[in-house]
Structures are given as C-alpha cells and as structure tokens.
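Researcher: Go.
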Amino acid sequence: MELPKFLLGDNTDYPDGIYIVHTEYPRFVINLEDDEVEWLEDFSMEDEKELETEAENLIREATAFYDREVARYED
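Model: Structure:
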C-alpha cells in the first residue's frame, strides 16, 4: 500500500489535539496544538545532527499540509 506523505489524525480522548502524521523517513507525529513532536524512529548521534536541519523543514511542510486540508474543507 502506498501512503500519502502526511495524514491528519484525530482522537476524541484529546479533543484539542491536531495531529499530523509524517509517513516517510523520518516518521513522526506532530501535535499542532502545542508543536510537540514524537519521532517514530531511532536515531544515531550522526543522524540527529542531520535531523536538526531537516526537522524544521518537515514541520513547516506538515503545517502547510494542515492549512491546505482545512482550506479544502472550508470551500
């Protein structure tokens, strides 16, 4: 199965949470309500240095995805 790069997530136990799941490496879930990120990968020290640069871009992309999806619902 081919998954989209980003998925919207929802959970009634966390009604204020706005979750975006990034399905490609490095996989993560971000809660846009508080910008908390949960990485679904284990990283080496070398990976962590590279990830610092990439993480900002990925989080920006996740936020743009959310904004685009919400705009589509509003139309």
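Model: The CA atoms of residues 4 and 23 lie 7 Å apart.
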